[in-house]
């Protein structure tokens, strides 16, 4: 059985204020998702962040997908 990529995402209150990060490193999932959403390719990101690998970026996407698996979403005041 293959271990889920999402296990690469860690939450530690002493790292990045408890935000989800990749493998306990100081790379927040949020930042990697923003880079992907901006149009950067995996290769460009990995070139800029040599500590990371393709599986780390896939783990970020899997983590984001899991966050959307809720029964209801409510609009909040902005």
Strands, helices and their partners?
Blueprint: E1 9-10, E2 21-22, H1 29-37, H2 42-48, H3 54-67
Antiparallel strand pairs: 1-2
Describe the 3D structure:
By secondary structure, this protein is mainly alpha-helical. The protein has one domain: Arc Repressor Mutant, subunit A. It is 38% helix and 5% strand. The protein contains three helices and two strands; from the N terminus they run E-E-H-H-H. A two-stranded antiparallel sheet has the order 1-2. Helix 1 crosses helix 3. The mean pLDDT is 92.
Outline:
This protein has helices at 29-37, 42-48, 54-67, and strands spanning 9-10, 21-22.
Descriptive key words:
5% strand, Arc Repressor Mutant, subunit A, two-stranded antiparallel sheet, mainly alpha, 2 strands, 78 residues
CATH architecture: Orthogonal Bundle
Helical proportion, percent range: 25-40%
- Give the helix/strand class: mainly alpha
Tally of discrete structural domains = 1
How do the strands of the widest beta sheet line up side by side? 1-2
Distance between the termini: 44 Å
Instruction: Output the helix-strand order.
Output: EEHHH
- Tell the overall outline: globular
